[in-house]
Amino acid sequence: MSRSSVTDFDRRNRDWYIDRLVQAVVFIGGISAIVFIIGIFVFITREGFSFIATEFDVSGFFLSQNWRPTSESNPTYGILALVAGTASVTGLAMLVAIPFSLGAAIFIAEFATGRVREVLKILVELLAAIPSVVWGFIGLSIMNPLIIEWFNVPVGLNVLNAGIILGLMAAPIMTSIAEDALKAVPDRYREAAEAMGATRWQVIAKVVLPAAKNGLLGAVLLGVGRGFGETMAVLMATGHSVNIPTSIFDSVRALTATIAAELGETAVGSPHYQALFTIGIFLFAITFVINLTADLIVRGIRNK
Amino acid sequence: MFDVRVSVRVCMMLVLAVMAAGCGGGERRQVIQNKGSDTLVNVAQAWAEAYQTIDSAVVVAVSGGGSGTGIAALINGTVDIANASRVMKTKEIDLAKSSGQDPKQHIVGYDALAVFVHKDNPLGSLTLAQLAEIYGDGSSVDSWSDLGIEVPGCRNQEMVLVSRQNNSGTYAYFRGAVLGKERELRLGTRDMHGSKDVVDLVEKTPCAIGYSGLAYSTDHVGMICVTSEEGKSCVDPTVATASDGSYPIARPLFMYTNGEPEGHIKTYLDWILSDVGQCIILKKGYAPVRGVSCGD
């Protein structure tokens, strides 16, 4: 009796093998993200490395705005203007996206109920699914003439245009994460505040938002990461002009857009090609740090 | 013994192939591989399609990818004809020679780079020297008032320079033709990613000036009459002035073959240079190599 039950327990039947197989598949899926990220890092580093080793000088690369990679007599690779372009567009995008996404998140998490809430959530997710080339096209063909007309400026492809477009692109993901952060605030906080006679707005402003502030900060940082990495829309809406902006009506050029525009027709292995990959390494490092910080902050509140 | 068996097998395959072709539609089909310049790709496609009706036994497979791509394929011996909107560099010719190819250049048409301004811009003509002052690095011309004109609808009369991305053939040609070998284009130009984008942006921007292929011109933009030297009369960018060489910023469009073309490739090239072929390039907005009368 006891012998037979032991063999039953030990039996390697079909279910056992299926179980093992599923475990293996899930394990491969789980580690594949790590494998890919290391693979990508190794690839871009290898492509850009000989540039860093030979022609790279820190001040010439980061502190010069002379981006002339195809010059016949004297090619120069200065990305200062490109960094300024990416930073200015992302900064403005955050100014646009934070009020929008925070407002939407508060409404969805605290006020909306039932069907309104479900429809809103679906719409926000739908907004996140619009391809960036469509956003870029909106910037190019709708926003450009509008900005020229409204602000009476010479050209509508500028920091303002790209900032608004990028802000609208980053808002959905920021809304989703901010909403999660607000939902994570325990209901007893709200109940306690209401029991003490706080109005609904007082509950949100004085209790829920402070309690969710790490999650909200994480949402903003992820939006910043999105802004730094976005390519197609900024390529189309910024005007793609190597220029350090002095106002929001100046055309600029983003780091990502430079890679997208120039890599296709660059001879593989040339200094220009390697300089573009060096920009890639730089972008990778920045977004890595931003996303890691955001993740640590969000994780911080979960564990508290 | 082994060799014989292989050659027998090859013979059988050949016989089968011929039989299959025979079943397919009569005589064997000849394929011409044609690759290169994106400027030329539309024309090359039109030629290939029209040639089908002339000689159905020859199929021309056209693909784009840029002048550099086409020339690289010629060097590697994978294409019969490479399209290019620039001449082969000495380095490329050396490379081709060392791998046993002998590139021969054929001019199949001309492309005029027109200088576009907004429709409301009253500017009529520019000299090459003025263009160099507008686009050149360290130049003095920043506003339309510096040229002594006032553009309606343009705030501060600030000039908005539209250019191309720095690795396009159009950019390289414009820089060479207007600024010469040494001088750079100034930074801060709006660098568009396609010939059509330049025209689109200029059309919507009163302050703008830009350059692009004549084939991309529309009724909604103005084109500048260009003077090559002070004192000469200016030349409008047209198909006629591009082919007779009087327009100063027109570039020849090339096809490269490996060695002097022979057989069906020669027939195809001769047809391209015939009146019929040249009328097709004219219809696509580029200039033919000589005056042709096409009728409409």
Can you give me a brief rundown of this structure?
The complex is a heterodimer of chains A (304) and B (296). Chain A has 304 residues and is mainly alpha-helical.
Find the structural class of chain A using helix and strand composition. Answer: mainly alpha
| CATH homologous superfamily classification of the largest domain in chain A | MetI-like
Oligomerization category of the chains in this entry: heterodimer
State mean pLDDT of chain B (0 to 100 scale): 84
Count of the domains of chain A: 2
Mean pLDDT of chain A: 88
> In terms of per-residue confidence, which ranges of chain B show pLDDT below 50 for 5 or more consecutive residues?
1-8, 18-26
Number of domains of chain B: 2
Which band does the percent of strand residues of chain B land in?
15-25%
Task: Report the uncertain regions of chain A.
Answer: none
Describe this structure in words.
- The complex is a heterodimer of chains A (304) and B (296).
- Chain A is an all-alpha fold and 304 residues long.
- Chain A folds into two domains: 52 residues; 236 residues, Orthogonal Bundle (MetI-like fold), CATH 1.10.3720.10.
- Chain A is 76% helix and 1% strand.
- Chain A has 13 helices and two strands; from the N terminus they run αααββαααααααααα.
- In chain A, strands 1-2 form a two-stranded antiparallel sheet.
- In chain A, α2 packs across α13 and α8 runs antiparallel to α9.
- The longest helix of chain A has 40 residues.
- The termini of chain A are far apart.
- With 296 residues, chain B is an alpha/beta fold.
- Chain B has two domains: 139 residues, D-Maltodextrin-Binding Protein, domain 2 (3-Layer(aba) Sandwich); 140 residues, Periplasmic binding protein-like II (D-Maltodextrin-Binding Protein, domain 2).
- Chain B has ten helices and eleven strands.
- In chain B, strands 1, 2, 3, 4, 6, 7, 8, 9 and 11 form a nine-stranded mixed beta sheet that branches. In chain B, strands 5-10 form a two-stranded parallel sheet.
- The N terminus of chain B is likely disordered.
- At the A-B interface, β1 and α6 of A face β7 and α7 of B.
